[in-house]
Write a structure and sequence with these properties.
This protein is an alpha+beta fold. The chain has one domain: Cytidine Deaminase, domain 2. Helices cover about 25% and strands about 25% of the residues. The chain has helices at about 15-25, 65-75, 100-110, 130-135, and strands at about 35-40, 45-50, 80-85, 115-120, 125-130. A 5-stranded mixed β-sheet has the order 2-1-3-4-5. It starts with 12 loop residues before the first helix and ends in a 13-residue tail after the last helix. Bound molecules: tetrahydrodeoxyuridine. Tetrahydrodeoxyuridine binds near residues 61, 63, 64, 65 and 99.
């Protein structure tokens, strides 16, 4: 199983993957026809998932990660310790890494060592830390004490 992190997927990977896959299957992507599902694990052990939600007014579309994090925040979640993103089609060989905006959204709730499992619907393709995807990031610490 390919990983970029020393420990590889946690024991919670299967549950996170299953939640992200269920969201992936509900993706609302009639324009791009590119389904994405995401799931995040909070520090208190809860899993929140979401899919991309496109819109006929294209810029109003929302990424799967934003949906998952919005659901999490609405339920009081504040820290994430692991994330899964599923995109693409089986065997396409591509990495559906979080877009730039979603890397910053994940940074809001995750530490630089947050493992992000980049998956296809068939399973794990690669794991990278948030730090690897968003180096030298600006985050909540920069605004601490204001
Ligand atoms: N998408 C996500 O949901 N997450 C990402 O990190 C990459 C892109 C969605 C947005 C759009 O609905 C579709 O994938 C094609 O860009």
């Amino acid at each position: 199983m390919p990983t970029d992190t020393a420990g590889g997927p946690s024991a919670r990977f299967d549950a996170l993957f299953a939640a992200a896959l269920a969201a992936y299957r509900n993706a609302y992507a009639p324009y791009s026809k590119f389904s994405v599902g995401a799931a995040v694990l909070t520090d208190d052990g809860r899993v929140f998932s979401g899919c991309n939600v496109e819109n006929a007014a294209y810029p109003q579309g929302q990424c799967a990660e934003a949906t998952a994090l919005g659901r999490m925040a609405s339920e009081g979640g504040r820290r994430i310790v692991e994330a899964v993103v599923i995109g693409g089609t089986p065997g396409d060989g591509l990495l559906c890494t979080p877009c730039g905006g979603c890397r910053q959204r994940l940074r809001e709730f995750g530490a630089p060592d947050l493992p992000i499992h980049v998956c296809g619907p068939e399973g794990l393709r690669r794991t990278a830390t948030l730090e690897a995807l968003l180096p030298l990031s600006f985050g909540p610490d920069n605004l601490a004490g204001r």
